[in-house]
Amino acid sequence: MGTDLDSGITLEELQLAARNHGMPLEGLRYDVTPVGMHYLLIHFDIPETDAATWTVEVAGKVRTPLSLSVGDLEERPAVTARITMECAGNGRARLTPRPISQPWLQEAVGTAEWTGTPLAPILEEASLDRDAVELVFTGADHGIQGDIEQDYERSLSVADAMRGEVLLAYAVNGRPLPPQHGAPVRLLVPGWYGMTSVKWLRRVTAVAEPFTGYQQWAYGVRQSEDDPGTPVTRIEPRALMVPPGFPDFMARTRTIDAGPVELIGRAWSGFGGIERVDVSDDGGASWSQASLGAVPESAFAWRSWSFAWDAREGDRQLVCRATDTTGRTQPIDQPWNFHGLANNLVQRVPVVVRRP
Q: 192 forms bridges with which residues in the sheet?
């Protein structure tokens, strides 16, 4: 089931944390996250790739199999979209008992400008058979998880794969994809948690039965290992703030002078736009509404917010909470689940407010 955070991180978790990284919360200042600050999760290894010889195969239940080079994809109509991506395990390490896996706190997020070509016209060109129900996306990263040797694979229903915003991406922030972000081609599914956007994409296979591979099963909200669970799909609403003041090196507790302070941050949801952000300086006992920035041009990008805080002397706990246009809001106390997935518990920032 896991261990409490106070009982110490495992060596295996430390290895994962050294390979992967979150976005420093100062990165919330940027509309577009610099690639080096964008969160990163690699399941197995970064595979060796060569853009000059790379192809994406479209096969299975199709009438016209395709083999597309990177050049073929770049010659097709291109779309550049600002998209917020978040790991499904974001916040896992703050659950008690702690699920054992990549120990994310709350920084597994980033917003980049991704460039690629829409997937739907490619599927139309391949001409799916009538009995095709899902598309399986296979990456080049290979390893063992759950005692199963596997390529990293995930699927989407035909309807979800045909959505206009789904891309085969080959560039980010105006440059070719770097190796760690899936070069030379990756799937990009806006609004869904990051596990869906398969990196180092090699194959798209139309199948007549729902895909039951390990990665499809593993990303489910379940209460035990044997619980069939509920599949994780779209990103739950979340707000994060740039921690104000300056930090203690180890504890990261903030110190700030009393007086007017502008709190700033970002909020996002895969289910709809952000309707409001509320802020508390007493741990959530009382709330005030923040001001929202302009509605982003992309429906899948985070929205800025700000709050004029009158910082009074003493120990404070800042909390922020997002609500989207569907009415979904962040919980104050997060229900626990076995793998710590889709955890959108509110952010809490301890602050010592001192006399100026």
A: 234
